[in-house]
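In this section we turn from sequence analysis to structure. A common task in structural bioinformatics is to predict how a protein folds when a small molecule is present, because the ligand can shape the pocket around it. The inputs are simple: the amino acid sequence and a SMILES string for the ligand, here adenosine-5'-triphosphate. Study the lines below before reading on.
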Amino acid sequence: MASIDSELKGEQQVVDGLYRRLDELREQSRRRLAAVRRAGPSGSPQNRSERDAFATLYEDRLAQLESVEDRLAFGRLDLRDGECRYIGRIGLNDEEQTSLLTDWRAPAAQAFYRATAAHPDGVVRRRHLVTAGRRVTGLEDDVLDLDALAEAGIDPASLAGASGEGALLAALGAARTGRMGDIVATIQAEQDAVIRSPLTGALVVQGGPGTGKTAVALHRAAYLLYAHRRLLERSGVLMVGPTRTFLRYIDQVLPSLGETGVVTATIADLYPGVEARGTEPAEVARLKGSAVMASVVRRAVRQRQRVPQRATRVRVDGRTVVVRPQDVAAAIARARRQNRPHNQARVTFVRDMLARLAEQYVQQLGWDVPPEDRAEIIEDLRTTREIRIALNLAWMPLTPQGLLTDLWTKPHRLEAAAPQLSADERAALARPADAPWTPADVPLLDEAAELLGEDDQAARAQARADAERQAAEVEYARQVLRSTGAGDLVSAEALAGRFASTGPSLTTAERAAADRTWTYGHVVVDEAQELSSMAWRALLRRVPTRSLTIVGDVAQTSAPGGTHDWAAMLDPLLRGSWRMAELTVNYRTPAVVAAAARRVALAAGLPVSPQTSARDVPDALTFERVTDAEQLATAAARAADRLAVEVADAAGAGRVAVVATADQAAQVRAALAAAGRAVPVGDVVDLQAPLVVLTPAQSKGLEFDVVVLVEPAQVLAASAGDLYVAMTRPTHALHVLHARDLPEGFVDPS
Ligand SMILES: Nc1ncnc2c1ncn2[C@@H]1O[C@H](COP(=O)(O)OP(=O)(O)OP(=O)(O)O)[C@@H](O)[C@H]1O
C-alpha cells in the first residue's frame, strides 16, 4: 500500500511538471499574441496581413493549449531499455527540446494502444494514469513482459491494480452529459488499427451499434491531421454526419484533441448558399436519391440545348439575317463536342452562331469586310434583342436552382427529362415554386451545378492570378517562418493562406466550407449507410483522390435511399477500390440489451454484424405492458419522469430519452407537459436537456443513460433499422413500454 502511495506521489510530481510546462507555453503564446496586437493597425498592407496571420496563429496555438487541460497526460510506457515515456493529448518538450510528453498520435505512442503480452513490442509495463483535474487519483498497470520487469528497473511491489480494464470500464460506465467525449486514454487495439490506417484510398469501417465507429472516425481525423499535417492543412478535412444535432453532439471531441480545422457538415449543407430545411415524404426523398436522377438531370440540361422548329428572321441595320435550324443544329453539335459544362459550352455555341449570322450579313454587304469591322458587326448582332432571344431559346444560360425548380414545377419539363419515371413518380416530385429546398434536393443541385458550370472566363483568369499570388505568398511565408522559428507551429502554406490581404483572414476550413468546388484532402463520413447514390456522387466530387473514411452500419439504415450493402452502393462509385475494417466490440449497450436488439434485428432480416458486449449491467432490460394503447403516452411520461430523477447525478450528468414514432412522440410530449415536465420540442434536439423525446431517426448516433422505448411493434412497422437504432441507444437500461405484442426476438427463447 505504502508503495502504491509513493507511486502516486511520484506520478503526481511528473504530472505537475507537465502542467507547469503547459502553463509556461500558454503564457508564452499569450505574450506573443499581446505583442503582435500591440503593434496596432499601421504599416504596409503586407505588414498588416503578416501581423494578422501571426495573431491568428498564436490565437490558434493558445486555443489548442487551453483545450488539452483535461487529462493532459493519461499513460506511461516503461520500455525494456529502461526508458519511461509519458503519453498525452499533445506532445510537450522542455526548453532544451527534450520530450516530456508524447502525443498519442506519434508512432512512439502506438505501443500504448497495441502492445499485448503476446506481442509486447518492447513494452514491459503499460500504466494508465487516472486524473481528476490536475490531481492523479489512481493508477492501473498492465505488465506485458514479466521477465523484463527487473531488467527495466521496476519493483514488482510498485505495481498498481494489475488489469488494464479498469480505465475502460470506468469510462464506459460514466453518466452521459449529452456531448460525446474523446476516448484517447482507452482506445482499443482494433480501433487503433483503424485510426492509424494509411491515408490513401477509401476505408470502410463497418461495425454494430456502440462499437466506437464515431469515436474512431473522429480520432482518425485527428490522427491524419497530425501525421499528414502539411498535406491536409492546406486542403482540409471534411467530416459528414447525419444531422446537425449529431454534429453538435460530437463537436467537442476534435477540439479536445487539439484539432479545430475540420469542416463538419451534413449532406444538406454541402451546397453553399442553399438552406435545405424543407421536408418531404420518404418516398420522394428515396426517388430523388436514386442513381437514375443523374440521367434525369443530365437530360434536363440537354433539353435546354434545342434546335428550333422554324427559322427566325431578324432585321439588323436594314439587313435581314436568319437564325436557321440547320445552323443551330451544327453549332449545338460543335459546342457539345467540346464536352464542357452547359454554360461554358454555350459561349462556343453563341460565338459560332454569331459568326454564321455575321457571314450572312457580310454577304449582303457585297464587299470584303476587314476583321475589326467584322467584330463590330458581331457585337451589333449580339446585342440585338431578337437574336439574343433566339439564341437563348436554343441554348439557355441556366442556374442549378432554376433548372431544378423548372423540373419540379413544370410537368412537361419533368416528363421530357424523366421518361424512365412513371407518371405517379413524376407527380410525386411536383411541388410549388416557393417550396423550400429539401436535403434530397442538395445532391441534385450539386449534380446540376457540375453539368452547368459557370461562365468561367473571368473565374479562370482569377484562378490564374490567385495561383501566382499564392505561390509568391508561400515563398514569403517560408522566409518568415525561417526567420521567426515558428515552423513547428504551422506550415508555410497554411500561414500563406492567412496572409490573404483582402477581406477577413479565413482559415482553410472557412474557405472550404464556402466553396462548392473545394476539394478536400480527406473526407470522413459517419452513419454513411444513410447516404443515397446521389449524395455519394456529390460527396465524391469533393475528394477526387478518393481518400475517404466511411463508417457506418448497414443494419441501422433508415434513410430512404440509404444502403444495406456496402458493395452494392460503393462498387459502382469507387470501381471496387475500397478496403474494409470491422469493429466487433460494443462499448455502449449492456450485454442483455445488445443481445435482444440483435435477436430482433436478425428476426427482421437485417444484415447484423457480429459483436460482443464490453460489459453487462444488472436489470438493464425491463418491460411494462399497458392494457390500453391510449394509455401508452401517459405511462411513458410517468416512466421517463421517474427515470430522469433516478439517473440525474450531482454533477448534472445523466440523460433519459423516450424514443417513439413521430405520432407517439407528440403524445408523450403532451403527456409530459400535462404532468408539469416540459421537454424541448422541434427538430433540433436539445442535447443538454435531462429528458428528451425523439423519433428513432433523431436518436441516430446519439446515446443516453436510459431509453424508454414506446410500442416497438409500431417502430418496427415503420422501419426495422429504426427499431435496431432505438434499442441500442442506452448505456445503462432499456425500458420497453408496449400495448401490442412485442416483435419477435425481444424475449430470449433460451
Ligand atoms: N475505446 C473506448 N474507450 C472508451 N469508450 C469508448 C471506446 N470506444 C467506444 N467508446 C464509447 O462507446 C460509445 C459508443 O461509441 P460510438 O458512438 O462511437 O459508437 P458507434 O459505433 O458510432 O455507434 P452507433 O452505430 O450506434 O452510432 C461512446 O460513448 C464512446 O465514447
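Confidence is low (pLDDT under 50) at residues 501-505. As an exercise, try to locate the residues that line the adenosine-5'-triphosphate site and compare them with your own expectations.
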